[in-house]
Input
Amino acid sequence: MDQSGSTGGQGAPTGPTSGWSAPPPPPVQPGPKGFVYADVPNRFIAYIIDAIILFVIGVVVAIVLGVVGLRATSDNLQTFGAYNPIYSIIFAIVGLAISGGYFIYTWTKRRATVGMQVLGMQIGDAGSGATLTQDQAIKRWLALGAPFTLAQAFNPFPLLGLLIGLAALGWTIYLLYTTYQSPTKQGWHDIFAHTMVVKATNSVG
Output
């Protein structure tokens, strides 16, 4: 099916459909018809937008936890300022649930996160362009979003937070590198979940 919004007969131009045709081998076309492969800068900016949204939600969660009596540090006079590990564990669990829910929902129901939509990108099955299945979305999130969320949640722990943070940073660099090196801009996480991120040609600046 033509994805470029062409006019069929006397009717109005058709809108975007839920998939795309599998792209021919490069260099015949730069991507599926009507799209180009989404490059690293666009995807990185989209991820920053999504991270800001999740950060704001995280602040709200922290406030709610504080209202119910859970705080990152103790307010007891004898242990004032001491770090509360129970808080981090709960915050990590809640943070993982929110991150997973956000990415999995937007990938499977909207074909794009808010950040991706801002930049005119969408995600689909690498072969058919169909909307991701829930299994694909979960696998992609486990490879992409979960490590970063864990690093944020456990950052306050003196040694554990540092180790997880360094591991998450290294993993992020690896994913960016594999995405950059791929002719179809599929990082390891995309290969793992059999997904592809594209950008509409009419939104390429």
Remarks:
- The chain has one domain: 35-203.
- The first helix runs from residue 40 to 67.
- The chain has seven helices and three strands.
